[in-house]
Amino acid sequence: MRVAAQITSDERFDLLALGKAWKARALVEQHTQAPEAEVLIQQALEDVVRRSPWIRVRISYAAGDIALKQGDNVEALKHFTSAAEALEKYGGEGGGYQIKPRLGMALLGVDVAAAEREFEDLRDLRGIPVGNLYGIYGLALVAYKRGQRSRAETLVEEALQQLKKNATSNLLWRLFDDLYSKLKREAA
Fold first, then answer.
1. Residue ranges per domain, the chain?
2. Which strand (E) or helix (H) includes residue 37?
3. In whole angstroms, what is the distance from residue 45 CA to residue 182 CA?
4. Separation in Å, CA 109 to CA 68, 103, 112, 178
5. How many Å apart are CA 52 and CA 61, to the nearest integer?
6. pLDDT tens, 85-103?
7. Residue 141 near residue 160 (C-beta atoms within 8 A)
8. Quick one: which of 5, 45, 61, 77 could link to 106 by a disulfide (CB 3.0–4.6 Å)?
9. What is the mean pLDDT of the chain?
10. At a CB cut-off of 8 Å and minimum separation 6, what does 77 contact?
């Protein structure tokens, strides 16, 4: 936002909106349910239609991520659908490895079968290993939601083995580890 304040072109407004969206998301991620986060994301969304498609996608991602964090799958789905529409305007990114997990996570609370389709697409995505792992994570959540704990555990173990080959720590590692721990506690 400091950089945006120094710019005199119209790009300044794109950067300010993006800065507000990301700051709102950071506040929510820090478990700061401050009214400031809601004000910032609403300000970023107010004139999102006047932003470039790339900026609209990022603002919609942030708004959807916030809604998911707050447990509002319907609102999250609205924002992620908006992001998907903006992505189409410039040809998308990386075969959908960023939008599909978001759509899938939002759909888990609305339509499990549709969520499963998003995660299947991700798992089968060619050339983007992180997309494949998000697909497996989503499919594990689908199995868990359906009460198929054994299948969920198998999927988590498969993904953890893949992760161990390439990294020692990252967001996906933590997500899988949290789900695996939950599955093990419930089995005990």
1. 1-92, 93-188
2. helix 35-46
3. 36
4. 10, 11, 7, 19
5. 14
6. 999 988 888 888 899 999 9
7. no
8. 77
9. 89
10. 64, 103, 106, 107, 110
SS3 98: coil
The helix/strand/coil state of 73 is helix
Q: Which two tokens stand for residue 122?
A: 């991700």
Q: How many residues does the chain have?
A: 188
The pair phi, psi for residue 168, each rounded to 5°, is: -110, -15
Q: What is the pLDDT of residue 169?
A: 61
Summarize pLDDT for 169-183 with one digit per residue, the tens.
Answer: 677 888 888 898 999
Which CATH code for domain 93-188?
Answer: 1.25.40
Q: Which two tokens stand for residue 135?
A: 């697909």
Q: What is the dihedral of CA 48, 98, 145, 67, to 10 degrees?
A: -20
Amino acid, single-letter form, for residue 34: A
Tokens linked to 110: 């609305």
Comparing CA positions, the residue from 138, 153, 145, 148 lying closest to residue 184 is 153
Q: 142 in helix, strand or coil?
A: helix
Token pair of 41 as six digits? 């994301």
Instruction: Give kind and range of the element (H or E) at residue 9.
Output: none
Both tokens of residue 98?
């960023």
Cβ-contact 44, 61 below 8 angstroms: no
Q: What tokens appear for 168 in the block?
A: 């020692």
